[in-house]
Design goal:
flat; Immunoglobulin-like; 2 domains; five-stranded mixed sheet
Length: about 240
């Protein structure tokens, strides 16, 4: 089911292909989320917006299939309020990139319309060094938030959650926050994630070690007793 009536005088994307130099000024691509839906069986009435509710636009990096959730990304920055994609050639890390912009109905996510945006930037140096990120660890207490600041690889990088968990996980840029109220989570739990920088994708995991507050206090007390005893013992 598709929203397909993007007329030539009112297209979904104002520009679909750009060829630039790194020294060129920023370019703006305007998106029209209100194109009428005249085809799908859900809202095939030429007035899908008012009859079917809100719409949303998501972007996917075609080369990796990565759904972009953190901006800026490579040479792009997205403004959802104005539905504009800003292309910054000076920030490009790859010579050629293609984003797939997908418009969907919030109430019916299978009703979609997609458009590819291609940007070519000449004279961009190739990235030769491989991307690497070791697994991370985070200590957490049941019923208390715990935060981990992930390594910052710059404005052209972004993190994403790739698995599901039984506890709350919130990712905001490089900040990862977890919270669990379930005693069944006590122990080590894994969060699978990915890091994308330019066209390089690396998978890693965050090992979250959940304890209860009583366990944490007991461990701290035992550690203090041991340290005192060691300090005063003549042996």
């Amino acid at each position: 089911m598709l929203i397909t009536s993007a007329a030539s005088n009112a297209p979904f994307a104002s520009v679909t292909t750009l060829s630039l130099l790194p020294t060129d000024s920023n370019k703006i691509i305007k998106f029209n989320p209100l194109i009428p839906d005249t085809v799908s069986s859900i809202c095939g009435s030429a007035d899908g917006f008012t009859k079917c509710g809100l719409r949303k636009i998501i972007f996917t990096d075609k080369s990796s299939g990565f759904v972009i959730t953190s901006w800026p990304y490579n040479a792009y920055d997205w403004n959802p309020e104005s539905s504009t994609l800003i292309v910054k050639p000076a920030s490009a890390t790859t010579a050629n990139s293609v984003l797939t912009a997908t418009l969907s109905l919030v109430s019916q996510p299978k009703v979609i319309y997609s458009q590819e945006i291609t940007v070519n930037v000449a004279n961009v140096p190739l990235i030769k060094s491989p991307l690497f990120l070791a697994n991370q660890s985070l200590n957490a207490i049941i019923n208390q938030e715990a935060t981990l600041l992930l390594p910052d690889f710059g404005v052209n990088s972004s993190y994403a959650l790739t698995g599901t968990q039984t506890f709350s996980v919130i990712l905001e840029g490089t900040k990862l926050t977890v919270l669990s109220s379930n005693l069944a989570d006590v122990g080590t739990q894994q969060i699978t994630m990915s890091l994308l920088k330019a066209s390089q994708l690396v998978n890693f995991q965050v090992n979250v070690i959940f304890t209860t507050e009583n366990q944490d206090n007991k461990t701290a007390a035992e550690g203090s007793t041991s340290q005192v005893a060691s300090a005063v013992s003549p042996y």
